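re: ur msg from earlier - yeah i can do the D-Mannitol-1-phosphate complex, just paste it... oh wait u already did. ok heres what im feeding in:
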Amino acid sequence: MKLCYEGLKDHAAWEQAAVRLPAFDWKAMVAETEANPTWVHFGAGNIFRGFIARLQQSLLEQGLVKGGIVAADTFDYDIIDKIYTPFDSMTLMVSLKPDGSMEKEVVASIAEGLRAGTAYPEDLERLRTIFRSPSLQMVSFTITEKGYALTNMEGKFFPFVEADFANGPANCSHAMSLVTSLLLERYRAGATPIAVVSMDNCSHNGEKLRSSVVTVAHHWLDNGFVDDGFVAWLEDESKVSFPWSMIDKITPRPAKVVEESLEAAGIEDMAPIVTSKNTFIAPFVNAEIPQYLVVEDRFPNGRPPLEKAGVYMTDRNTVNDTERMKVTTCLNPLHTALAVYGCLLGYTSIAAEMKDPELKALVERIGYDEGMPVVVDPKILNPMDFIREVVEQRLPNPFIPDAPQRIATDTSQKVPIRFGETIKSYVARPDLDVKSLTFIPLAIAGWLRYLLAVDDAGKPMECSSDPMLATLQGQLSGVTLGDPDSLDGKLTPILSNPVLFGSDLVELGLADKIEGMVREELAGPGAVRATLKRYLNH
Ligand SMILES: NC(=O)c1ccc[n+]([C@@H]2O[C@H](COP(=O)([O-])OP(=O)(O)OC[C@H]3O[C@@H](n4cnc5c(N)ncnc54)[C@H](O)[C@@H]3O)[C@@H](O)[C@H]2O)c1
Ligand SMILES: O=P(O)(O)OC[C@@H](O)[C@@H](O)[C@H](O)[C@H](O)CO
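and the outut:
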């Protein structure tokens, strides 16, 4: 069985393999998308295929929309060449149930995949045509937190961003510049309104996306590439809106066990790849069943009826509160603590970590004891129910093949949100003392210890990719396991950097505590475990 339009014609074989097929006319969907595109998505990776594309599939199956989504990638063209094109942009979605069984379905709501880069003029021209089309209602993104960043840790523009400012809309490469150039096409073709929606895990994601796009536009205005009218249109939220959103569905990298199960069922060519840009991707996506998407309802050119696919459409404050609840308290801080300590302790499974008494206690202390006192109740989801589902059902699900190494990717970009926001909330609350925090500092200490790339057994350990890895490892060079004094003076510049932690931890009086913990973890092999035991009273 082959995953593609022709391959799906053998209905009986797919039925035999217990794979649900799309219940709509795929050719008609592709033709409608070409004629009247409504939705473009940037970041053609796993969460998009396993969650967002399924929303449109549900609407197609309910007969509520006729067209599909156009997927685009500005960063990793292998995804399109190797995972989209050979499979007619279809995905084999595998939902992993808590009893170990798998639900399989073909997601076919992506009409095409495009490489958004000047090296691919045909694809870029197709995108320009789509952006000029008045039917286009929304552009969404899952490009990771770093995809929005224009500046480095010192607040200076990256050289490739400077190059985009100088070269202008016809010859740019960064995701934010490319999107701005495509919005310029739309402006010049009649300036029909549009919604530009970040669906990444970052606080105030809509604000972050807007700020980067508007910054690019202002530089192009200064350099004479665009006129005032374009910038005014872009900044008019009734014309170009940047709704905020919160997205949640644990979508691990493709797992061997799932690949084997699909191959055993007779489905061909399911092998995962790691692209040259380090994306772990396969023709299939494996993910848990729980999923939450909350979106600010500001779509000036209309939108698909997403609420009919289970999306919460609401106001900005509710999105903000829901996102803060998940990303700063109830899920992601626990994930990052499990990521760094899991790598140090030799784990490759989050579910296995949840059986480790110290690690389970650590996430409970971070979540229930330190996070919950400052959690905001978004009302549409109950924080206590949410965190309980995370701690008791989602993280320990042994059939979710999630790994601390995936979650440890780009930790430097996540720390200010995942831990920094709770730290700021403690500072803002007169009835709370930020110095009373222990387990969030312990998680930060674990990350600093992780950066040494030596595990708790004293063996070399590969750190996951992170745009700040080289800089931070440079700042920590000379720090040695077995020699806590080698840390002397090395942490102050790191812990005082508000870009990394959201505030200056030296000024807040947390640096000594964190440094003390890192020193303990540096005592020698086994010291990480011993430190965890000591703080968690085990
Ligand atoms: N996987 C999850 O469990 C999950 C859950 C909720 C939210 N998210 C959000 O979605 C994002 C992507 O997750 P995923 O599972 O799809 O990851 P993935 O590795 O499968 O895909 C990442 C995508 O981002 C693009 N990208 C990476 N760096 C970029 C850059 N600098 N500029 C432009 N594009 C870039 C890649 O080309 C790829 O399309 C996460 O960072 C997070 O913000 C993921
Ligand atoms: O996707 P990232 O890299 O921002 O973070 C890694 C995980 O914490 C994240 O993907 C979670 O699985 C997700 O936020 C669950 O909804």
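cool cool. The first strand starts at residue 19 and ends at 20. ping me if u need the other ligands too
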